[in-house]
């Protein structure tokens, strides 16, 4: 497959959301052709980048959770690295994560929690490598069974938030009465379900990436670094309220 990328007869590349150590990315970069990166990796110098500031974008919903009075907060995320990990995330794994979007969202959550003088080391983070309904459901089950004391869960994708709400419904957990939830992405299913989330301009990202590549090909194939960070928007929902009274969730 790497040979196909190396031999591809193209005028340029748009690299969409890959790990910083992805071998196909290395092949693309070795060709020296017009290239634009969309979403991740976010640390390539002298390569145009189109995306959002994931670390800052998630912070407003975390602040809403804290302002509602929550101190026992968990996190659900999707893959942080090319190497699979279906379970709890160590600080070492987070520090070395090569999938920058999820890494930065989790870091953003922990930074807000630390700014509130809470201990980020006490925040459990559960990861799933595959992002599908079965895996997001199981991630929610794992987090809440191990930590039934939690009163809020911040999800780094809407898919995770939907998996959590599905598990909560089956377990008889009231949202937001017993558990507050936030998402990220602003997909219609999450917004329709009343999940407080962050909408990102996915269509505009694609358009801007295409425009940037076309300009590189037509005008300046070896142009310097161009970094475009598009704005995001909090979409208020009904999934955050004050913490339940003292006690743990009743989970199977």
UniProtKB/TrEMBL annotation:
One Pfam family in the UniProt entry: Peripla_BP_3
Boundaries of every Transcriptional regulator LacI/GalR-like sensor domain copy: 62-239
Highest taxon of source: Bacteria
Full protein name: LacI family transcriptional regulator
Taxonomic classification: Bacteria, Bacillati, Actinomycetota, Actinomycetes, Mycobacteriales
InterPro entries (UniProt xref): LacI/GalR-like_sensor, Peripla_BP_I
SUPFAM superfamilies the UniProt entry points to: Periplasmic binding protein-like I (SSF53822)
Record keywords: DNA-binding, Transcription, Transcription regulation
GO molecular function terms listed in the Swiss-Prot or TrEMBL record: DNA-binding transcription factor activity; transcription cis-regulatory region binding
């Amino acid at each position: 497959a790497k040979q196909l990328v190396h031999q591809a007869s193209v005028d340029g590349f748009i690299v969409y959301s890959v790990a910083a150590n992805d071998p196909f990315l290395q092949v693309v970069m070795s060709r020296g052709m017009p290239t634009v990166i969309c979403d991740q990796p976010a640390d390539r110098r002298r390569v145009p980048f189109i995306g959002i500031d994931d670390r800052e974008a998630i912070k407003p919903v975390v602040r809403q959770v804290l302002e509602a009075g929550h101190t026992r907060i968990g996190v659900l995320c999707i893959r942080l690295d090319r190497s699979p990990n279906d379970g709890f995330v160590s600080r070492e794994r987070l520090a070395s994560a090569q999938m920058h979007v999820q890494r930065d969202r989790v870091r953003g959550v922990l930074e807000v929690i630390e700014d509130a003088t809470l201990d980020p080391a006490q925040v459990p983070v559960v990861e799933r490598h595959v992002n599908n309904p079965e895996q997001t459901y199981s991630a929610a089950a794992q987090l809440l069974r191990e930590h039934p004391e939690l009163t809020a869960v911040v999800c780094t994708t809407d898919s995770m938030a939907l998996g959590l709400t599905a598990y909560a419904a089956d377990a008889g957990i009231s949202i937001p009465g017993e558990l507050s939830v936030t998402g990220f992405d602003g997909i219609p299913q999450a917004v329709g379900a009343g999940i407080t989330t962050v909408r990102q301009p996915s269509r505009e990202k694609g358009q801007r990436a295409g425009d940037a590549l076309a300009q590189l090909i037509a005008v300046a194939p070896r142009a310097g670094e161009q970094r475009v960070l598009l704005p995001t928007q909090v979409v208020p929902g009904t999934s955050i309220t004050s913490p339940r009274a003292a006690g743990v969730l009743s989970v199977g």
